[in-house]
Amino acid sequence: MDVVLDVDGVRSGYGATEVLTGLSLTVAESEVVCLLGPNGVGKTTLFRTVLGLLPLRDGRIRVDGRELTAFRRRELARTVAHVPQARATPFPFRVREVVLMGRTPHVGPARSPGRADERIAAQSLERLEIAHLADRPFTATSGGERQLVLVARALAQQPRLLMLDEPASDLDLGNQARLLRVVRELADDGMAALMVSHAPDHAFAVADTAAVLAPDGELATGTPVDVLTEDRLARVYGNPVRVLAGSTPDGRRLHSVVPVVARDR
Known about the structure:
It comes from Pseudonocardia endophytica. This is Iron complex transport system ATP-binding protein. The chain is α/β, with parallel strands linked by helices. Helix content is about 30%, strand content about 30%. The strands form 3 sheets. It has a 6-stranded mixed sheet with strand order 6-7-8-3-9-10, sandwiched between helices. Strands 2-1-4-5 form a 4-stranded antiparallel sheet, covered by helices on one side. It has a two-stranded antiparallel sheet with strand order 11-12. The longest helix is centred in the last third of the chain and has 16 residues. The model has no long low-confidence stretch (mean pLDDT about 95).
């Protein structure tokens, strides 16, 4: 499989504070990488650096085999789509208009989206099973619905790499399953996906690779079963956990990570 994102020895941060101190990570086509770690270790910093929003202090980032610095903004947006955490907008765009904005990198300057763009946006809504929201104002949707709309907008970009920042944080269990299923299907179709999550269960459910970033900057990568061990998660998060295993009636393995909550006696 071709490597779509190659992060090699990257250093980045804010002002005098260096957050990433030599991080290396790859994401290949048809691969889902789930990035986990405590708050403040640099997961969002990595995203902002890959998106060109923070300067690269050292190291190299290649996207589809090209140096990140070689991309113009519009060209990068045709290759990489970012799904941020849902935020309300003061402008009452309809949901279909928000998703259609994902076609912006493919539309020429001073031109409007055409019928083909509208069709791609509609297909993105259908894939997330939210076509019924198409004419609703974005401001009138719930937090979970907004998150699904932002994922649909990213799909409309037709990227090679999909970067999702805690995409399931506002979703109920049913919508979490729907979102994770879509991410897995997109990877099976050839897309590369890098997903930040605070739920190790999500990595067990859909990821090919789990990447755990510790407070000291150490990054452990491998299959979820190999990386998401009780010892490692307890050490990284500073709290004991239990990894529970089971199976579905059709024989698929399931894993769930449960923090151990101490009780005063």
